[in-house]
Amino acid sequence: MYGKQGKNSIGFPDPLASREQKESEKYGLSYAKAISSQWGAIERDNSLYKKRATTFERNRAYANGTQDTSIYRQLLNSLDPSNADGSFLNLDFTPVPILPKFVRIVVNKILSSDPYPNLEAVDPISSSEKDAERRKVKMMVQNKDKIAKVQEKIGRDISGGKEIPETLEEAEIFLETNIKTAGEVAAQVATNMTLKWNDFNDSIYRRCVNDVTTLGMAVTKRTNDPNYGIKIEYVDPKNFVHSYTEDPNFGDIVYAGHVKRISLQELKRIAGDQFTDDEYEKIANQVAKRYSYDMSTPRSYANDNSFGNNRGAYDQYMVDVMDFEFLSLDCMTFEQKDNKYGNTGFYYKGENYKAPTNSVYNRSVTKMHNVTVYGGCYVMGCDKIFNYGIKKNLPKNMHDLTRTTMSYSVVATNLQGNIPKSMVDSCIGFADQLQLTHLKIQQAIAKAKPDGIIIDIEGLENVQLGKGGELQPLDLHDIYEQTGVFYYRSKNPEGGFQNPPIREIGNNIRNINEFINLYNHYLRLIRDATGINEAMDASTPKGDQLVGVRQQAIAAGNNAIYDITNSSMVLFKKVCADIVKCIQVIPKNSILYRAYENAIGKENSDIITTFHDLPLYNFGVHVVKEMEEIEKQYLEQNIQASIAQKELDIEDAIAIRQLKDVNQAERLLIVRRKKRMARNQQMAQQGAQAQAQAQAQSAQAASQARQQEMQMQAQIDAQTMQMKVQLEMEMEKLKHEHKKEIETIKAEAVLGIKTDDREYREKLEVFKEDRKDERVKKQTSDQSKLISQRQGQRDEISEPETTAQPPMSQGQMAQQKTIQEKFGINGQQ
Fold first, then answer.
1. In the predicted model, is pLDDT for residue 723 greater than 80?
2. Rounded Cα gap, residues 807 and 803, in angstroms
3. 46, 281, 454, 489: which could form a disulfide with 503 (CB 3.0–4.6 Å)?
4. Domain tally for the chain?
5. Which position has the higher pLDDT, 630 or 146?
6. Does 387 lie in the same domain as 261?
7. Res. 9 pLDDT band, cuts 50 70 90
8. Under a CB-based contact definition with an 8 Å cutoff, are residues 34 and 10 in contact?
9. Cross-strand partners of 497
10. What is the widest separation between alpha-carbon atoms in the chain?
11. What letters, b where the CB count within 10 A reaches 16 and e where it falls short, cover 23-51?
12. Average pLDDT, the chain
């Protein structure tokens, strides 16, 4: 396996070589050349590197809608398919952007989840701390009433400022989400801060998700820079090389690297004094020869007065550099030895140490096989290597120091033969057919003729047939294409005419409906291949399908792209786990350590001291992502229904919405609903008791009121009877007085009436006589006047003036009226 494997292949060096040999540049150069030999020259079409790079470039072109259209020209040009010059077609060959739409749907769906790392310490120390905290919380739940009474008595909070859950079920959810040790908080804050420093979520992770969807592979690289800290870099998968693997998570690769094209200026900046200026010039000549650069420019030095240095003409060339690293197993030997004082020491003895056989003191040799990482940069095609050596600050698990990982985080989907199969790759054939159908529709529209006529030139006389009396077939074709008029000869062998000389031609767009159906057919095939249906991309209106049907369609689409979603989450988890391990091995006396310490201290000053203890923890990384939109809608519907039924408070709804895990949110919803329902039931019972008590008090008050009313009524009746008796007595007394007065008045009245009656009769007789005398006198005077008038001795007789009598007083009138009524005399008498 090792050494030379063939005429044109170079084998890998011995992995069991000593550490001194592995650290030599010769060993590193051999390893780099073996990697280059295994993947082949990057400029050769038959190499694995070129083959995979070509596949990735094609997938990206289709994913961006910029694929090569020469194949369509060859298929549509019927006259000369080999040249594909398209001289007889004038079509728009711009690709239909169907695949870019599906790629954006998948990428945006994954990025909308907004993942973030949730770190949990799994070492025994952290587990014991969490168990103690859990027991404390459960104890507080069980003794919540007693704690409240104690706090009320002493006047201060003894719960540590934390809200005590109501039930043990709620406490379990509280323990899952809120119980974190100080070390976990410090590590999580540092990890999130590192991701933000590298703009990972908004830049690198977005490109990686796009690569997983388009290419089926995504790669990132981590570097530990003492000045810039932990850096996460994006690596183009087409430039990535690695050992053979069938694991989509690349957990068993032995070496990895990526090829980057840099200028010679950049090479000199990175390599520095590791190469002489003559070696740089030699590299430039080899690169120029390899890539056929123009060597007509003289290779003399040009003086750069602005910077006071010399710059070679070869600085314009670009060179391919392979940044590689590989895992190796190093043996470390330790000796346990007793000394003359009776003490026991433990000493490092190198790699090939052998204990002496005849020793005065007890000795025991212990060997530990430690996985390390070697790496460097190889200038391809020039047999030059720089920055080679054993990697420092390797991320290791503090509870297993013998293992480590490389700086590359890689995931892939459907990996086979080191070439992944992506979603775009599976749809390229359908996209080509869809594009051809689109071009055929253009061709059918372009070839559509106007409504024309057929003219039989044999049936017409004196018709000129053009120059020379003949029309060539191409002339007839041009006339038909431009005017829709078709000329032909319709004579039969006997010389007669078969058809009328002029007929109409009805020209429509032929086969347009068949082409449209074919276009929709290939679009359905793309949907079937990707799993993105109409419900998932929201191209179907909501009213066209039932809610359950749409949810099933969306679930089917999510299942179809699960491998892409899962690979993206695995990549995010691997990057976060790598960052955590690197943070744990940062030297305490470095500037970077103080920068992290100060940055974490700004968030929480209590965590600064715990940052020193991070190497003691063993962290497990869980990637938590936002709920899906359909999950949010379903949860919100449950919340609104619970609020409408008064089974949930606004505060409970806010607490539920803050959770990002749908399972925890649903569990909290159930717990809060149960608590609210129990509280409502208790309030209802209290209300019923209060109502019963109020009714009893009301009945008692009503009874007392009735008794008081009866007592008052009895008193009123007694007083009424007493008053009635008194009134009757008073009435009898008054009646007696009235009767006495009446009798007195009657007696006086009878005596007075008799006296008045006599006097009145006397006066009446006098009055009657007086009135009689006056009438006689008046009659006599009237008769005398009549006689004198008849004799003409005087004028007409006027009415005599009556002597006015003085008016009677009211007393006289009343007295007169009484008398008249008593004796029956009317006023006329």
1. yes
2. 12
3. 454
4. 2
5. 146
6. yes
7. low
8. yes
9. 491
10. 213
11. eeeebbbbbbbbbbbbbbbbeeeebebbb
12. 76
- What's the Cα-to-Cα distance from 821 to each of 599, 757, 817, rounded to whole Å? 130, 13, 6
DSSP 685-704: HHHHHHHHHHHHHHHHHHHH
Question: How many C-beta neighbours within 10 Å does residue 132 have?
Answer: 10
- Of the three residues 375, 405, 435, the one that is the final residue of a domain is 405
State the pairing for strand pair 502-505/486-488: unpaired
* Three-state secondary structure string covering 476-489: HHHHHHHHCCEEEC
The SS3 assignment for 238 reads helix
575 contacts 222 by C-beta, under 8 angstroms: yes
Q: What is the pLDDT of residues 43-68, one digit of tens each?
A: 777 888 889 999 999 999 999 988 88
Residues 291-295, mean pLDDT to the nearest whole number: 58
Same domain assignment for residues 360 and 288: yes
| pLDDT score, position 172 | 62
Q: Phi and psi of 703, rounded to 5°? A: -60, -45
Is there a domain that residue 509 lies in?
yes
Pick from 627, 604, 626, 662: nearest CA to 188: 604
pLDDT at 609: 53
Are 370 and 401 in contact by the 8 Å Cβ rule? The answer is: yes
Q: Of 502, 536, 558, which closes a domain?
A: 558
Scan for tokens 């013998």, then name that residue.
Answer: 402
Q: What is the pLDDT of residue 499?
A: 65
Range of the domain at 499: 425-558
Predicted local confidence at residue 816, as pLDDT: 60
Tokens of 824: 């029956």
| pLDDT for 209 | 94
Q: What separation in angstroms does the CA of 530 have from each of 226, 357, 558?
A: 44, 70, 10
Q: Which two tokens stand for residue 582?
A: 């690197």
Residue 506 lies in a domain: yes
Same domain, yes or no, for 358 and 395? yes
What is the pLDDT, as a whole number, of residue 304? 41
Determine phi and psi for 161, rounding to 5 degrees. 75, 10
Q: In whole angstroms, what is the distance from residue 571 CA to residue 563 CA?
A: 12
Give residue-wise pLDDT tens across range 616-672. Answer: 677 778 777 776 666 777 777 778 888 787 777 777 777 777 776 666 677 777 777
The DSSP result for 267-328, as a single string, is HHHHHGGGS-HHHHHHHHHHHHHHHT----S---EEEETTTTEEEEGGGG-EEEEEEEEEEE
Confidence of residue 821 (pLDDT cuts 50, 70, 90): low
